[in-house]
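Chain X:
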Amino acid sequence: MSWLFLLLASLAWVLFDFCRKRLVENNSPLLVSFVFSLFTLPVYLVFWLATGSSQLPQVMAYYVFASLSGLLAALGAVSFISALGRGRFSILLPMLALTPLIAALLNAVVFSNILSWQAYTIIGICAYATYRLLGEGFAITEPGAGFMLLAAFSWAGCICLDQFVLPHASVSFHALWVNVIMVLVLFCSLVTRRKSALLPRGRKIYWAIGLCGFAAAVLLQFSALRYLDASIVEAVKRAIGIVAAMIVGSVFLREKLRPYQYVYGVIIIFSVLIFSFVTE
């Protein structure tokens, strides 16, 4: 069942990412992140109350680390959308293949979860392929690459913290708490940057589908994290995301890729899939 949760979460993330790409064409990244975080709060609240798991976590450390996770999630969301507003969807999204690899390193350093030498070899291969995907030769030429790298680091730290604190809270409450922190952080950012505080624009269908995708992705991912390692969850999710990004970018967004970029995309996909097996 945990793998089914992970598969459904991965597909929901792809749907959500596509909607964000479309919406950032007419809205600031900060506003898009805030609106999605705000309007999914009632969903998490209702789910928390409806599941009958309305008991609050008793461990105080939970609130500290879960709040830090929310802060990193907000930073990652804004960085991600900022990147999409600058570069090609089919090129930038594969950068997130670095997220499970960074998560594995963070788990080793912070939580003493050491992986095999095969896993770290794959980390190196995937990092090199991602670097070559972003430009020509050894120069990174894709706009928005810096923001996407920041998103990868932020979300890697976020998912490690999620895995650490989830034993102390229900999935629904953790989703609610993290999202509350995100809303507060993003609201404060909007207030300090008033020129970004505009009414949402863009097609309503993208907002509606994005909200459904976001809520489903978060709840399903947290459910999978109860049984699977953070690096495995990220690896499978990103592999599916890379395939979808290349298809969506070529078919729907009419983005042109060079043959060598497809080659490195395939290398990244196989790297993260093999990584998920050697770390299981």
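Chain Y:
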Amino acid sequence: MLPTSRTTLKHQEQILLATIRLSGPDFLTVKSSQVAAQIQIGSETVTECLRFFVSVGLLSGARGRYSSTAAGDSWAEIRVDDHTRGRLLLHGLFQRHWSARSALAALEDGPVQSEALAQHLAQGLSRNPRRGMYLIEWLTEALVIHRDRYGRVHAPAGGQLPDSATADLPSRREPVRDEGLILGMSTQELAAMPTAQYVTLLKSFTEMLQVSLNAS
């Protein structure tokens, strides 16, 4: 499963956020056509986007009917106050996605050009190169890989997060309003956690979520 080639990463994210918002805290099932009507994007484009987000674990569903997952709802809430923490949550999800394993395996011998990695990821799955490039953008957003200013893609050194995982953290944070708990902790507690500890928490959360989904 690859991202759609019909629209940019920014619009793909808008489609995801609109779906999570419509699904709400009760995780209601939402039709692709409802999302398309709200954000005025074609229904086929929306459906292609949502299929990919299901494969990552941000949504659940199929055949034009989708709902948010607990992970998707947490991502949508966390990213409002701290985009970097939202990227770290994506990191925990994408680590389990086939594309992360494939990309990191392809980068074991060193960095490659973005186009070459996109072709590798899309091999046998799509003839449209933009789908592979959008997948690289999502993997970069999720801090799985790092793309430099020369267009080369790198794997994190020593299995650690790319430098961008901490580079975006502000030196001072404004107080965050608490309206509930996320992963059993307040937003202040989450924001104050060291990056490595936060990643470990997210891994535990995704493991528990997967066990819960398998049991159901």
